[in-house]
Amino acid sequence: MGRLPELVVNGYAEQWVGRGFPWVYPKEVVRGGGRPGEQVSIVDRRGRVLGRGLADRGFLAARVFRHADAPLDALWLAATLERARALRRLVVDEATDGFRLVNAENDGLPGIRVDRWADWAVVTLDSDAMVPLLDDLAQWLVDEEGVSGVALCYRPDPRDERTVPPGRLLHGEPPEAPVVVRERGLRFAVDVLDGPDVGLYADMRQVRALLEPYWAGARVLNLFAYTAAFSVAAAAHGAAHTHSVDLAAPVLERARANFALNELPTDEHLFEAEDTFKALDRLRRRGVRFDRAIVDPPSFSRGKATFSAKKDWPRLVAATARVLDDGGLLVVASNQGELSPKVFDGAISDGLRKAGVAGQLLWAAGQGPDFPASTVFPEGRYLKVRVLRVASPAR
Ligand SMILES: C[S@@+](CC[C@H](N)C(=O)[O-])C[C@H]1O[C@@H](n2cnc3c(N)ncnc32)[C@H](O)[C@@H]1O
Predict the structure, then answer these.
(1) Which of 201, 203, 224 to mutate to test the pocket of ligand 1 (most atoms within 8 A of CB)?
(2) What's the whole-model pTM score?
(3) 6-66 in CATH: which number?
(4) Element of type H or E holding 116
(5) Residue range 36-86, pLDDT digits in tens
(6) Fold of domain 74-182
(7) 204 lines ligand 1 (CB under 6 A)
(8) What distance in Å separates the CA atoms of residue 269 and residue 274, rounded to the nearest whole number?
């Protein structure tokens, strides 16, 4: 192999890459670089090698995969994947086969996520600059994990303006029916060819686990329910009634299918295709009340903010608190990495004040341990979950 193209970075990037940060921004490049997907040697202005990466264009100039002067080859990739797998063997319970195997930057593979869905693996790339690693990655998944199929999809960073390449199959035959995965013994159907949102958000598994003791006999409102994983978990753990609201009717069909998969009769479980605010308004006017509410809105729709922390969060929290009975539990989640915990907590506090109720924070949680966050990559801690008890103040 000839000499690698060099990407010379400024003093700022030198410090960050030196600490293990995996990104080089275009404004940090002094000179050099490569075509997207090309291996580059990342060097400081004195020519000292800081690491090895894959060049890109768009919002990143390169992703750094090794913080050493060493190749991005199959041996290195296998060692990195084995480390990722060892963590999952430690933290994923036996009754779960839908989990994240590789969490991108946080597992030493920037821009690459791998989710296991039963005997399938879904690889999600942030850009096609990582395509050169795909053959070795898919081979490892087949040989070492024994998967029967590997699907590829893309999820570009919202800061990246480029169009998303279509997903494709990297190994195996398209499944004839939805793949059924287990989460803590419950069953959920996922569409592995429709990644990255296949039908179950595994990053919330620990939150569902945390809430298991609190569903018995409860009336549960699940807002932005998607395929209703929270409602299924609630019903399976004894909830008296669940009400799942989502704007998209097709996801509610999948929600019903998830109830059926778990042999949960749907007589006491409602599915409403409606806008959350409209549903909340009607419930309040009719005097319908709940003991538990889950609020987990989408953060972005392809680069455009859907919810504004300042405006929409307090309104959403207030409207939800108004249909909770005294002493009810409110679960609020945001997967918007850019929203700081401080601003999020402030918005919750504003919302509860607006509704005239007092709040007690029971837990502050985040993504589960199969979604680790590297300590040198603050962007890795994106999920914020708050479990609060709301109460009318004593008069
Ligand atoms: C992040 S997902 C929720 C994930 C879900 N809580 C879970 O854990 O599986 C967001 C969902 O919000 C729905 N949605 C978006 N805007 C909505 C609105 N205004 N009212 C109701 N649902 C909405 C989308 O259809 C999507 O299914």
Answers:
(1) 224
(2) 0.95
(3) 2.30.130.10
(4) strand 112-117
(5) 999 999 999 999 999 999 999 989 999 999 999 999 999 999 999 999 999
(6) Transcription Regulator spoIIAA (3.30.750)
(7) yes
(8) 16
